[in-house]
Specification:
Blueprint lengths: L2 H16 L13 E2 L47 H4 L4 H6 L6 E13 L9 E15 L3 E12 L16 E13 L2 E8 L19 H6 L10 E8 L5 E7 L15 E3 L4 E3 L18 E10 L2 E11 L5 E2 L6 E2 L2 E13 L2 E12 L14 E13 L2 E12 L2 H7 L10 E13 L4 E10 L4 E11 L4 E12 L14 E9 L1
Antiparallel strand pairs: 2-3, 2-23, 3-4, 4-5, 5-6, 6-7, 7-8, 8-11, 9-10, 11-12, 12-15, 13-14, 15-16, 16-17, 17-18, 18-19, 19-20, 20-21, 21-22, 22-23
């Protein structure tokens, strides 16, 4: 990693340690952020999730509204806010006031594949999850932690791995927020990060995603995986700046065959638990690091932003020439976005240049080419309580001729540009207690699609019932969505919040 990234990382870490006793914390004034589908993986072509197919409506002030649990935790507007907050359900149950704020939920989910997959369990999901969220407000700082305790009936082992989220415990957040200056906020620790304007399409959002959770029927909030990072936010009348430094690379929780089968180009067929991906992940502290920057401001009614990222492809997009083991090549991304009112609705535009630094001329057949990604989106309410969102996404491979010339004979042909259309329909009924949703991805050149139907019913203030599906169809078993046809599943769940 460049010396500049190391220097900035050191400055951020020092600021966090020195500023813990500084001025009282103040409310963060940045806009909320959205999601997208951007990063692609060796087993997953670019696009979903970014390339993270997360999410629901946007994840950020730049994009559509974020579903509960997907955004960053709020900061209290003033110290001692906990004293002014009403007692939580837990406190009322035990008729006491805790020295910290405790909330959470208990949830059960079950789902099954609709077709046989010889490489996977018949069930796609079979788990019970208890999430506990703790917030503690100090005079000049806030501590926030979110942890999930999980019984997974399909897991082969229950040893805890906080990097992949496997095991009986998944630590979602554990961070400290403080303000060393009136115009600066700092968040240090494990946190959920997101920005960009895409709806389930991630272009400039290079924070980790969890595609396995997304495909097997977990709540959409779990598409966003946690980052172990330092985030510095500076605010001014001219513009606002976010800098996120991750001292050790946080990869996507990508499709590796454990829960979802995929097309293996090396073997030329669909594989799953019989050929689990063992990637060589960069893991040296302060050397295999990442830095992401966002400069943003409002121009009239329009939210504009510039982005930069320096790190690695978020899922294995290359292979070692000697061992053949999947690797994460070096990557830098530069982009911009705008979002604002258009024709009675909200329009979005976003673009990103993916600089694949290990193969800038496109001649290395083992490393993904550089590319340009862009999207145009539009969302509006058609009638009361019925909203529609549309997006067009393009992923254009650079140096495509060099890429084709580098491929061995008999390789699968890859289009220079991948086109993707998305549509979201959201309908609220029964006094808005029932939410009907359908999100559709369709690629007109690859002739494959991914449909996410979902219905949720808010039975009471505490109880929510949900049912839905992940439906994949495709002409070819090597296309992005076509490879997951055997993963098509239906699921149902019940959540008790407290």
């Amino acid at each position: 990693m460049a010396v500049t990234a190391h220097w900035i990382g050191g400055v951020l870490l020092s600021a966090c340690l020195l500023g813990a006793s500084a001025l009282p914390i103040r409310a963060q004034s940045e806009p909320a952020l959205p999601p997208g589908l951007g990063d692609t993986e060796p087993t997953l072509p670019a696009g979903l999730g970014g390339p993270a197919p997360a999410l629901p409506p946007g994840l950020d002030g730049d994009g559509p509204a974020l579903p509960p649990g997907l955004g960053e935790s709020p900061t209290p507007s003033e110290a001692g806010a906990a004293e002014a907050l009403p007692r939580t359900t837990v406190e009322r149950w035990f008729d006491m006031r805790l020295p910290f704020r405790l909330t959470g939920f208990l949830e059960g989910r079950i789902g099954a594949r609709v077709t046989d997959d010889p490489n996977q369990h018949r069930f796609s999901i079979q788990e019970t999850r208890l999430q506990l969220e703790v917030a503690k407000f100090f005079e000049s700082a806030e501590f926030h932690a979110v942890g999930d305790f999980v019984y997974d009936g399909l897991a082969d082992q229950h040893d805890v791995d906080l990097e992949t989220g496997q095991g009986a415990v998944d630590l979602r957040e554990a961070n400290l927020v403080f303000s060393p200056l009136d115009s600066v906020d700092v968040k240090i620790g494990r946190q959920i990060l997101t920005w960009g304007t895409g709806d389930l399409v991630f272009i400039n959002d290079l924070f980790p995603k969890d595609f396995k959770s997304f495909f097997i029927g977990r709540d959409a909030e779990y598409l966003k995986a946690p980052s172990d990072a330092v985030k510095l936010s500076a605010f001014s009348d001219l513009a606002n700046l976010d800098v996120v430094y991750t001292p050790r690379f946080d990869a996507d929780r990508f499709i590796d065959g454990r829960r979802v089968s995929f097309f293996d180009t090396a073997r030329g067929r669909i594989v799953g638990r019989n050929a689990i991906v063992d990637a060589d992940k960069p893991d040296r502290w302060f050397r295999d690091d990442e830095i992401a920057v966002r400069l943003y401001r409002n121009l009239g009614a329009y939210e504009t932003a510039l982005y930069g990222y320096h790190g690695f492809w978020k899922n294995p997009q290359g292979a070692d020439a000697v061992s053949g083991r999947p690797i994460f090549p070096d990557l830098s991304v530069y982009g911009a976005s705008v979002r604002g009112p258009v024709l009675g609705g909200i329009g979005t535009m976003e673009v990103g240049w993916y600089d694949s630094r290990d193969d800038r001329d496109g001649t290395d057949p083992l490393v993904r080419n550089s590319e340009v990604r862009g999207l145009i989106g539009y969302e509006r309410e058609l009638v009361t309580d019925l909203t529609m969102g549309l997006q067009y996404v393009a992923e254009h491979r650079l140096d495509h001729d060099a890429f084709e010339a580098s491929q061995p004979p008999g390789s699968i042909e890859v289009d220079r540009t991948r086109h993707l259309l998305t549509q979201r329909l959201t309908w609220l009924t029964h006094a808005q207690d029932v939410t009907w949703s359908l999100f559709t991805f369709f690629s007109p050149n690859e002739l494959d699609a991914y449909l996410r139907p979902n219905v949720s019913y808010k039975l009471t203030d505490a109880w929510t019932l949900t049912a839905g599906g992940n439906v994949f169809v495709g002409r070819d078993d090597h296309s992005f969505f076509g490879q997951f046809e055997d993963a098509t599943n239906l699921y149902a769940g019940a959540r008790f919040s407290f």
